TrEMBL record:
Entry protein name: Response regulatory domain-containing protein
Coiled coil: none
Record bears the keyword Phosphoprotein: yes
Keyword Membrane on entry: no
UniProt organism field: Hymenobacter koreensis
Pfam families: Response_reg
InterPro entries, A to Z: CheY-like_superfamily, Sig_transdc_resp-reg_receiver
Domain Response regulatory: 6-124
Length: 125
């Protein structure tokens, strides 16, 4: 079913990254990761990515900046990748702020892993 789907997790917390990775691997997704906002576009350019889980408070370039860069990328397949924001500061942003940055959906921290799996499946199957 989802064997060939690759998810990029952009998260600087190794605890959240490892938990998220394990949960999604159990769903048969392939996981690649980025520890900071500077690595995200490089990962997208290096291999096909089906979905991005993007921490908003990530070092080097914050998630909102990274989302805008992705949406302005020269390559259409990169511009169209679903971006699911992950944030502990959802109250600092409205869904309009997320949409303006090009974010497809968002999940609040602490992560509800059932909601994580549901949201990913909703966007990439």
């Amino acid at each position: 079913m989802s064997d060939s789907k690759t998810i990029l997790i952009a998260e600087d917390s190794s605890v959240i990254l490892n938990l998220t990775k394990k949960i999604l691997e159990l769903q048969k997704y392939r996981i690649v990761s980025a520890k900071n906002g500077g690595e995200v576009v490089k990962q997208l350019e290096a291999q096909p990515i089906d979905c991005i889980l993007l921490d908003i408070n990530i070092p080097i370039k914050d998630g909102m900046t990274v989302a805008r860069e992705i949406r302005q990328h020269d390559t259409e397949s990169i511009r169209k990748v679903p971006i699911i924001a992950i944030t502990g500061n959802a109250n600092n942003y409205s869904m309009d702020d997320f949409r303006e940055a090009g974010i497809t959906d968002y999940l609040p921290k602490p992560l509800d892993f059932d909601a994580l799996v549901r949201t990913v499946k909703q966007h990439i199957g």
